[in-house]
Design goal:
Length: about 140
């Protein structure tokens, strides 16, 4: 009798566990893989006119055959190297003789964090993640 009671109890417990595992109250949800954004590979560029003072910096990246896409990729690539300043202007130009905004293929405005963005850009740069870059691409000679 004791063996039969153990068998019935074990069978009942096993049935209860299997029923609980298969009940429809909870659905299995697949975890979505993070989306990977393919950025174009940064073209070769020459660093010119680099200045860093008092928490800010600026640089011109020379790419003779720059397009808007390659300029954006170069700006993002250069931004990875910034260490120190809180705010940075990154310009892509086609020639070392290009100097003014009328010559920029793209201009990137980089801020280390939200406070730096408020102080140095007046809040023009906003982001959910930091550091962040805001880009302006006029490509006047393109």
């Amino acid at each position: 009798m004791r063996a039969r009671t153990i068998t019935v109890t074990t069978t009942g417990l096993l049935l209860a566990v299997l029923t609980a595992c298969s009940s429809g109250a909870q659905e299995d949800k697949a975890v979505e893989a993070p989306k990977v954004v393919d950025l174009p590979k940064a073209p070769a560029y020459t660093v010119a006119n680099k200045i860093e003072k008092f928490g800010v910096g600026s640089v011109d990246l020379v790419i003779p055959s720059a397009t808007v896409e390659s300029a954006k990729a170069a700006i993002q690539d250069y931004a990875k190297t910034i260490d120190g300043p809180l705010n940075y202007g990154i310009n892509v130009i086609r020639s070392k003789t290009d100097k003014g905004i009328e010559d920029y293929v793209c201009h990137g405005e980089w801020a280390r964090d939200e406070q730096a963005a408020r102080v140095y850009t007046g809040g023009r740069i906003t982001s959910d993640t930091w550091p962040a870059i805001k880009m302006y691409c006029s490509n006047p000679k393109g």
